[in-house]
Amino acid sequence: MGTGVGQTRAEIAQARRVVVKVGSSSLTTPQGGLDHERIRDLTDVLAERRKAGTEVVLVSSGAVAAGMAPLGLTQRPRDLATQQAAASVGQGLLLARYTAEFARHSLTAAQILLTADDLMRRAQYRNAQRAMSRLLEIGAVPIVNENDTVATHEIRFGDNDRLAALVAHLLRADVLVLLTDVDALYDGNPSLPTSTRITQVNGPEDLVGVDLGSANKRGVGTGGMITKVESARIATEAGVATVLTSAANARAALRGDPVGTFFVPAEHRRPSSRQLWLAHATAGRGSVFLDPGAVHAVVTEKASLLPAGVIKVEGDFNAGDPVDLRDENGVLVARGLVNYDSAEIPDLMGRSTRWLARELGAEYSREIVHRDDLVVLRNGSTSDREAC
Fold first, then answer.
1. Do 315 and 198 share a structural domain?
2. Is residue 275 part of a domain?
3. Does pTM top 0.85 for this prediction?
């Protein structure tokens, strides 16, 4: 199966490489412990596909949920420290269960723990890519999760749906399957008889007016339908066909059967992983406002943002942080990694880099945001320009 344009459900059965994401609510009991039968059913499906010749990556939530019962917690903790404590207990339990279940099929499970920072920084991104690619080459099944024990509120994926979409892009997967506790995307509340299943999404226009609801009611996960649709959008922008359905439909989804909701991949080049991370996996820690000339240079000319085009700064951020780039009316046009602290920029605004270098020193000749660290946002989507 070729990656990208023109994929259909029927081609899923021939996919060379698939990423499957499963949520906490599909793996655990209502009390928070692991549901061994559900995990066994899922690993049976994935092992069957792996033995048929398809490379399989599993992005699995459930570490925090699995750690709740052993720690005597009756509901998902809200504070970061307790979440990290639960994850440190639950991650070992989760991997042990997967290891045992895949071993029944003579397959080796391999743990990959990632933070958002790992997919933003070039060296770490390359290392993660190489490690997972090599594991697939030697027949292992990588099991990916966010590294909740070290992730912070400021820099994290927030849920494994986004992580799965970025992993699918990183590994140039053909298909992403998002498994949840709802069998598909509906045009309203799926519990209401008036709601209809959406069988295929060709683009954002197909979702206008659709009620995506909120997070799941069981309270053991972090994502809801909103994050799953957003993740499908990230994946399809990267040329990855996506299926959203329930864990019970996993085998049928991987066969290409008409279950769940099929998201058709976009017809353009894959954006870089850094672009996807900036656009979808983080929020700006402040805003830099641009004059019309700078907006044109950044959006149309694909140029760096220079101090001369900046008219205002909001927020408190440090050099290296992601910031939102807005036009003079406050409309978000791009996001990038800034080269200056927020306190430095007001003294640079409206100045040419030549003047700044002459008056303040050569270190001030650099851009506010370099074009290699910038993604243009158009109607919530990434530009089709490849970052270097």
1. no
2. no
3. no
Angstrom distance (rounded) from CA 307 to CA 370: 11
Residues 127 and 60 in one domain: yes
pLDDT tens digit string along 257-290?
999 999 999 876 666 666 776 777 667 889 999 9
| Residue 286 near residue 317 (C-beta atoms within 8 A) | yes
Looking at residue 187, its amino acid is D
Place of tokens 């290891």: 99
* Whole-number Å distance between alpha carbons of 55 and 72: 38
Which strands sit side by side in the sheet containing 286-290, from one edge to the other?
Answer: 310-315, 286-290, 322-326, 332-337, 374-378, 381-382
**Residues 207 and 289 reside in one and the same domain:** no
CA 294, CA 312: separation in Å to the nearest integer?
12
How far, CA to CA in Å, does 371 sit from each of 295, 300, 316, 334, 344?
13, 12, 22, 11, 20
Q: How far is residue 176's CA from residue 82's CA, in Å, rounded to a whole number?
A: 31
Residue 281 pLDDT? 62
For the four alpha carbons of 118, 272, 245 and 187, in that order, the dihedral sign comes to: positive
Q: How far is 170 from 270, CA to CA, in rounded Å?
A: 10
